[in-house]
Amino acid sequence: MQKGVFKSASKLAIVLLAALSFQSYGQDIVKIRNQNFTSYFSKSQHLPVLVVYTLTPELFNCSKQKGESGITLGTDPQLPEFSDLKDDYNNTQFDHAQMMAPEENTCDKDAYRESYYFTNVMPMPKNLYKSLWEKLQQKEMAKAKKYKKVKVFSGTVGRNWIIGADNNIIVPEYCWKVIYIPSTDEYLCYTFHNIEPYFDKDKLELHKVDINTIESLAGVHFVNGVISASYVSPTPNN
User: Cβ neighbours of residue 49 under 8 Å, at least 6 residues apart?
Assistant: First the structure.
C-alpha cells in the first residue's frame, strides 16, 4: 500500500503540494519553546508543522518516574488563543497524536505535562497512531539509549479535510519523522500517508525513506543534524 507512494510519478505532485502549503501558511507559524521540545505551530491550521527535540536517556530512563498520572491534553499557556482545542478532537475518527511522546518526558513532571499541550499534537488515524507511530517513538528511545543522544524532527505536510467543533483543525495529508544520530551522522527517515486505510500487515520499515524524500516533501533542508526552512529560526537547538 505505502510502498509506492513516493515513486517518480507522485514525487512532483508531492513537491508541488509542499510548496503550495508553505506559501499559504508560512507567515502564521509561531515558534513555541517548551522545556524538552520546540514547536512550530500554525495558528490558522491549529497544529504543529514541525516539532523538534533532543532525546537523551536522562529524559525518560530514571529510577523514579515523575510524570503525573491523570494528565489530559490541554492548552499551551504560551499560545492560549490558538491551542485551546480539547473539544475539537471529540467525536472524530482521528486520534490526538503527540509528536514527542509523554513516555519520553517521564523524568520531569513539568516536561511531562507540557508534552500534553496541543502545540505537540496532530490529528492522526487511530490505527496509525497505535500501530506504527508509537512503534517509531519506541525506536527513537532505543536509539537514544544506545547512542546516548539523538535529535528528532517530526512534521506535517498538506491538508485533507477539517475537524473541530469550535476551531478548524487541518488534518494533514502526510506526517513524517527524522531521527538524527550525531555520533554516526546517520538519518533515519519515515513518512506516513495520514489518510491511508489501516493495513494490519503494515510494517514500520515499509515507511522508511531517504533524507532527500523528506526534504522534498516537507520543504526543509538538513545539514549536520540542523534543520532549515522558511519558518525555522536559526538557533542551535531549533
Answer: 25, 29, 40, 41, 42, 155, 156, 157, 231
Instruction: State pLDDT tens for residues 100-128.
Output: 999 999 999 999 999 999 999 999 998 88
Pairing of strands 208-209, 121-125: unpaired
Q: Which amino acid is at 79?
A: L
Percent of the chain with pLDDT over 90: 68
74: Cβ contacts below 8 Å, ≥ 6 apart: 86, 116, 117, 118
38-51 pLDDT per residue, tens: 999 999 999 999 99
Q: In Å, how far from its chain's centre is CA 221?
A: 16
Q: Which among 65, 74, 145 is positioned nearest to 105, based on CA atoms?
A: 65
| Alpha carbon distance 94, 101 (integer Å) | 17
Q: Which three cell numbers stand for residue 98?
A: 503527540
Q: Phi then psi for 232, rounded to 5 degrees?
A: -95, 125
Alpha helices in 151-196 (DSSP H): none
Tally of CB atoms within 10 A around 12? 10
Residue 118, sorted as left (phi over 0), alpha (psi -120 to 50) or beta, turns out to be alpha
Sign, CA dihedral 91-117-133-207, equals positive
